[in-house]
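Contributing new records

If you add data, match the layout below exactly. Sequence lines come first and carry their own label; structure lines follow with theirs. Keep one chain per record. Anything else will be rejected by the validation script.
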Amino acid sequence: MFIVDTNQLSCQQLTNTLNYAISQHMGLPKKLTEMQMKFAYELVTNEGRKTATECAKDAGYDPESAHVRASELQNPKRYPLVVQYIGELREEWQKKYEVTYERHISELAKLREESRKKGAWSAAINAEVARGKAAGLYVEQKIIRTGKLEDLSAEELESRMKTIIDEYSPILDGVEVEEIKEKVKALPKETQLES
């Protein structure tokens, strides 16, 4: 039995005393065991690749009861220190491997330089293009066309060209619509149908 004279304790002292009494009564450990730490590490570092049960087995828990242990170790009511440690590890790993614009650009630059030194020009060019994309220097567009241009009538083709010109007019500043039409009409028939 635990007896405390509450008249002589401050609020903080009373809280600490109660927490201590509860931990003693519930039998909560004051620190993590080696297996609990290993389980937490396995869980965080293999997230998405291993189940919690597999992590418990790898941490040394009995394979017969690993499923139950994995569940219990993630229960804050049963193992608050383990759950807290898992949270701390996750936060640490997120900070360590966080992807930021600066880190990304820097890493791509390092890869480019290493590729240049080795004479791997294709890899160096790809790294530089990836840096440009990350910096927003490239705009990737995919146009999916259905049907064939040769199946369109002259009026439908004219209408389609007008729609395209209207849609892309911001990037065609300074170029007259009639000028574009004349250039397209001046192309040989095969080239018009291929585009």
